[in-house]
Amino acid sequence: PKHPASLSGTWTIYPDGRFGNQMGQYATLLALAQLNGRQA
């Protein structure tokens, strides 16, 4: 049987790189949160 994913936990990024890379990392984190019904 499949177990549901836990609703607890934290997603983080390591903001490495220049400003454009950091914005891309943040945008990805925001999109993942929205797709999974999480607070960003």
Automatic annotation (TrEMBL):
Keywords recorded for this protein, A-Z: Glycoprotein, Glycosyltransferase, Golgi apparatus, Lipid metabolism, Membrane, Signal-anchor, Transferase, Transmembrane, Transmembrane helix
Topology versus the membrane: Single-pass type II membrane protein
The protein's annotated pathway: Protein modification; protein glycosylation
Reaction(s) the record says it catalyses: a beta-D-Gal-(1->3)-beta-D-GlcNAc-(1->3)-beta-D-Gal-(1->4)-beta-D-Glc-(1<->1')-Cer(d18:1(4E)) + GDP-beta-L-fucose = alpha-L-fucosyl-(1->2)- beta-D-galactosyl-(1->3)-N-acetyl-beta-D-glucosaminyl-(1->3)-beta-D-galactosyl-(1->4)-beta-D-glucosyl-(1<->1')-N-acylsphing-4-enine + GDP + H(+); a neolactoside nLc4Cer(d18:1(4E)) + GDP-beta-L-fucose = a neolactoside IV(2)-alpha-Fuc-nLc4Cer(d18:1(4E)) + GDP + H(+); a ganglioside GA1 + GDP-beta-L-fucose = a ganglioside Fuc-GA1 + GDP + H(+); beta-D-galactosyl-(1->3)-N-acetyl-D-galactosamine + GDP-beta-L-fucose = alpha-L-fucosyl-(1->2)-beta-D-galactosyl-(1->3)-N-acetyl-D-galactosamine + GDP + H(+)
A GO term, aspect molecular function: galactoside 2-alpha-L-fucosyltransferase activity
BP term (GO), one: carbohydrate metabolic process
Superkingdom assignment: Eukaryota
Annotated protein name in UniProt: L-Fucosyltransferase
Name of the gene encoding the protein in the UniProt record: FUT1
